[in-house]
Amino acid sequence: MKLYMSVDMEGITGLPDHTFVDSQLHNYERARRIMTNEANDVIESAYQNGCDYVLVNDSHSKMNNILVDELYPDADLISGGVKPYSMVEGLDDSFDGVVFLGYHARAGHPGVMSHSMTFGVRNFFINDVAVGELGFNAYVAGYYGVPVILVGGDDQATEEAKEIIPNIITAPVKQTITRSAVKTLTPKKSSKLLREKTIQAMEQITQIEPLIPPEKPTLRIEFTNYGQAEWAHLMPKTEIEPHSCIVKFEAEDILEAYRAMIVMTELAMQTKFC
After folding, report:
1. Across 15-143, where does the E strand assignment appear?
2. Which of 14, 60, 196, 215 has the fewest CB atoms lying closer than 10 Å?
3. Are residues 28 and 108 in the same domain?
4. Is 212 among the domain residues?
5. Catalytic residue (one of 109, 115, 233, 243)
6. Residue 30 — φ and ψ, nearest 5°?
7. CA distances (Å), 111 to each of 115, 178, 210, 255, in order?
8. Are 184 and 224 part of one and the same domain?
9. Residue 109 annotated as lining a ligand binding site
């Protein structure tokens, strides 16, 4: 069995707020060690229970958070900045299953540090289906015919996963109190949970179907202000929907939609408050 793992940070055990996920702030170094250990829990459990290969993609911010010198030695790691497919870089149809670890809920919904890629996004829509990072990434996996079999993160992220992927195995490592406060398991408790859930996901992999994306999808991104929509509209073949902050792009497939999303959100981040 060959597994792909995308590891975000906001949904990692014990992390309640931005001081843990911003590399410039005081809790970050503690958090990246917890993140690395949590990835190791899944990787080691997978290898010990019949997995032949695990590819890990660091999927948070600058995407260089995981401590490679402390990562389980049999895994491979994709690390670093500009990647054509961002949180799903390296994923293809050679994998049997996908694991999302450290994931959070989508923008505008309850959940610790909930957002969708950037804080300038209110909603992503694939055709008329609202998705966050989890759903968008799962669609890319589905394009390759690969199921997302396990999601670890806060309780709101795991509930989001169950809403869109029937029979998926989830590992909620913390419960949301507010967007910046949680009731969390300790790392030792979450380690036990993640190891058990990894085994369960591998055993039940045939019961979990890929999330198949629509052909020629329409990507619509709703931004928080019009300036962001204007910046995103600099991308060719986009249009701003009248009387809204929604930018639309007609894609050939979900891969093109995903890359368009990356470009538009990066452009929109150039917007200044005034």
Report:
1. 53-58, 76-78, 97-103, 121-126, 129-131
2. 215
3. yes
4. no
5. 115
6. -60, -45
7. 9, 7, 25, 27
8. no
9. no
Structural domain of residue 166, as residue ranges?
2-117+132-207
Two tokens, residue 66:
């995981």
- How many Cβ atoms sit within 10 Å of the Cβ of residue 178? 11
Shared domain for 224 and 186, answered yes or no, is no
> For residue 190, how many other CB atoms are within 10 A of its CB?
23
8 marked among binding-site residues: yes
pTM above 0.90, yes or no: yes
The SS3 call for residue 17 is coil
**Environment class of 125 (CB within 10 Å of its CB; exposed 0-12, middle 13-18, buried 19+):** middle
Could you tell me if 59 and 171 lie in one domain?
yes
Give the whole-angstrom CA distance, residue 191 versus residue 195: 6
Give pLDDT, residue 189: 98
Indicate which CATH number applies to the domain containing 57: 3.40.50.10780
Closest by CA to 271, choosing from 243, 250, 247, is 247
Kindly state whether residues 96 and 180 are assigned to the same domain. yes
Is 115 marked active-site?
A: yes
**Measured distance CA(233)–CA(198) in Å, rounded:** 42
59-113 pLDDT, tens digit each: 999 999 999 999 999 999 999 988 999 999 999 999 999 999 999 999 999 999 9
Count of the separate structural domains present in the chain: 2
Mean pLDDT of 137-166: 98
Q: Are residues 140 and 28 in the same domain?
A: yes
The answer to whether the annotation marks 104 as part of a ligand binding site is yes
Tokens of 274: 């005034």
Only one residue has tokens 């959940």, namely 111
- Whether residue 123 is contained in a domain is answered as no
On whether both 70 and 97 belong to a single domain, the answer is yes
DSSP 110: S
Q: Give the rounded percent of residues in the chain with a pLDDT score beyond 90.
A: 99
Closest CA to 10 of 124, 161, 179: 179
